[in-house]
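Write out structure tokens for Glycerol-3-phosphate cytidylyltransferase.
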Amino acid sequence: MAKTVITYGTFDMFHIGHLKLLRRLSEMGDRVIVAVSTDEFNELKGKKTLIPYDQRAAIVGAIDCVDLVIPEESWEQKVTDIQKYDVDIFAIGNDWKGEFDFLEKLCEVVYLPRTKNISTTDLKKSLTRFLSISQNDLKQAFDVLELLRRDLS
């Protein structure tokens, strides 16, 4: 019998951790549904995204192991989504461990390990640090690199 797996997330700044998650989901079942958080829902959660919902949904939908992308518009919709799409497995990162145990009445709940050393939060922090470097400091760094390149030539 075919198994349907569902997950939820923002999927901002799509990275290798997202891809590994989606591939793991496809190994768990025959049909993968991804609920991508809308901009409005992220705002309610206090999250800022760099990439708008329609683009994030299009990126996730273009991944070969994803069968359906739906909008995540509220916390409460998980119960109705599981029922509507006849979901067998609800899977999400283990940073949410225990938060969705109440769904066990409806389907299997699986908390998956996150990919080491990669997260959207860390990428955003790195980007913020990079953008805070002054143009003068960047120019000096490039000048030093150019001198090193010449010395090695």
